[in-house]
Amino acid sequence: MPDTPLQFGPFVLRPGRGSLTRQGVAVPLGARAMSILHLLARSAPRTVSNADILATVWPNLHVEEANIRVHVSALRRALGQGHAIVNRPGEGYSLATPVVPASQDDDALPAPAVPLIGRESDLVRLDRMLAEHRLVTLVGAGGIGKTSLAVAAAARWIGAASAGPAFVDLAPLIDPALVADAVARALGVSMTQAAPVQALVDALRERPRLLVLDNCEHLSGSVADLAEQLLTEAREVRILATSREPLRIAGEALHRLRPLELPVAGLPDATARDTPALRLLLDRAAANDPPFEPAPEEIGDLARLCSALDGLPLAIELVAAHLGPHSAAEVLVNLGEHLARPRPLPDQRQPRHRSLQAAIDWSFELLRPAERSLLLRLGVFRAHMSLESIVAVAGAGDGVDVDASAQDGAPLPPPLARESLAELVDRSLVAVTLDGAAPTYRLLDTMRDYASRRLRETVWEDDVRRCHLQRVHQRLDRLRTAGPAEYAQAWRDSLLDDLRAALDWAFSPGGDPALGVRLTAAAGQFFMQTSMVAEFRRHAERALVALAATPDAAAEMQLLGTLGMALFHAEGPGTAILATHERALELAGQLGDLAARRRSLWGIWLYHFGQGQYAEGLSFAAAYRACTPAEDDPLHVADRCTAMSLTYLGRLAEARVYMDRVLARPAQPQERVVGQFQFEPRVATRALLARTLWLQGLADQARAAAEQSLEEALAGGHALSICFSLVIGRCFVAQMTGDAATLKDGIARLLATARLYALPRWEGHGLILAEASAFEGRRGHIDLDDAMKGGAAHREALAWLGLRLPPDDEILLPAPIWATPEMLRLAALRGPSDRAPGLLDRADALARDQGALAWRLRIALTRRRLARDAGERADAARALDAVLPCFTEGFDTPDLIDALHRP
């Protein structure tokens, strides 16, 4: 589905993310219901027939129309009041409310983990504090409901600022250095390696925004540093933090969250029921299967139970799950025994944890041995868990030589693991999400901390963590041939959090560095597809150190292949890139890995291309072709490399042969799988074709190709492909055809995309184009000396745009390229007048050899201008005679308008 957010009534639908929110709060929907809603929303107010719904939602399946009624009924229940779904008997369904594009900045807030009961006064106070202070920290014990309250408070701010609230869950993070990255991900801002926090400041400097930073306590130092800088330099930002302790920085306002109000002894039953703590207990117990309905004589015991739990919402919810099978009196007695036991607390600064610890311990000990074992094993996951992954981790460690029957954390066979999971869900120890194609599961943060701590006490921890790492590895392997939709789903499932956790364990003192190296190598494509270049480099450097102690040629080869590309986008075509790919090529030869050999040859081609060594690059394109039959080249790498090299060498007609061959083949789904080869093939080829068509004097066709390339790039959503399409195609053609509006739009898109995905080389292209066109009405906003260091593409752009020409005698060195005729023409205009004719003769001869009719026209226009200035009217009149008749289109472009204007 296209990721165009749609708003109707209080709802915002993001089809590409598979998310729906109501006033910022997530609304869980199944995949079929989401598809139906998207179909109705994009068709509104038109009625969609049952046949169209079946064809869209259940393609190639025979499904009864009754299924539509069932899903629409469930959809209406999920949406509640304001759903606006109308059934038109005999016709179909429609969404009878205006549907408009929604703000891209309106980020969804997570659904609260527990109902927000008894917090009305806290919400009012938070509203007032957020209006008066730019940093508010919600402080309280674990399990007291800080996250639920923060989400509810943030939801009330939707629409109050120019951009919606952004929610950042810091609980899965272990490394304090990744705090800024987590905030950036929530905001859609990618980080630059040189100044990560500054990238955030720049993105937020003039944009009102409420940031919700959840679970800050274990990273309080880093969070405090980041918050202080944001508050100092981004004056429109407000921060709502949740933590077990204050951040302790200037300007911080604290709201200490107290436990829920408890029933007072002696209150009448009806009055006691209305106290927040007892309301929550009864609400959650009523959701049990079967529902718990207390007898009148049990209200007193239930009230005392709330008091014993100190009014902590999470503790109340855990205990409520056991009501029904156990009476209120039984629960009170058993829990009292746990409360009486002296136990060391994981955090001695939070004495209120004793009641929560007792509730968790009591709930844990009520579980059957298999359920206890599964709960502990689930502590290795940092994010969402599939049933398949849970079953795998549950069975890890069968080879441990102990009496498993008496051990918590023992391995479980698959049937018992699935049965135990269902029991943990029923007891509110595991949360389940039903808004995707298959259920996913997750431990609440407090339960994950408990399970992870208890797992460390068992003999199976390393086996379980090793299995978790292998599951992450398998998920990455499945993504190797996946498209953008699968990567988006992996991102939504927070695969990154589990990947980081697995890598941290692997490279820890008790971990398995060999597995860590292989996982890092396998993760390369994931990091590149999600444009997290800087983080991949950090992991890769750690893996390379480990490789010195535990050599692994295959992993090293795979790691180096991706690292070379990461270095290219971060630093440009330096010698380190060449060494990286040459080492990978050497290893590929040793291992007889043909696919890796191809990737290495492509990497070496890319290095030479980036250096402007187009003839040398052409030889490596030929080497790639020699070992790659067409059927093994679905991304058309051989033809694209060859076409690029030939185009930049100025051999335009030859290059067109390879471009036409790529575009003549029927498009295949796998072409959207970019892999290690940077760009979507048809997008890149059309962009290059657009440039070539303009050079050949076919301006109308060039504009059409440039627009088609960008449309396809935007539909795919791949950042590198979008940048390539803009620089090589749309911006170039707009610059040359004098289309100022299109050029301005293209530069803005390019800069935004490059900054969003931390692509400094492509940002450099945008800045050079902006400088040449006085974008935003200013010049001199880049350092030309620095821009010259950005590789051949930057140096050439500075030259043919007239910003920094090399000396005349260097223009043809080391060899002429596609833009050399334009450089010579500009040199003729700027140099001594006696040298101009010779420079123009050389430029025209070279343009004629290239078949670059557009350059020849510019050269002829320059001849006419110089002859006119010299008073040579006859020469001025003849200057265009040999070129102008060759044009068949583009007569609305500035060059041809000028040429047709006879003085």
UniProtKB/TrEMBL annotation:
Keywords: DNA-binding
Signal peptide: none
DNA-binding region positions on the chain: 3-97
SMART domains per record: Trans_reg_C
OmpR/PhoB-type domain ranges (all copies): 3-97
Keyword DNA-binding: yes
Pfam families: Trans_reg_C
Family annotation (InterPro entries): OmpR/PhoB-type_DNA-bd, P-loop_NTPase, Sig_transdc_resp-reg_C-effctor, TPR-like_helical_dom_sf, WH-like_DNA-bd_sf
Identification of the protein by name: ATPase
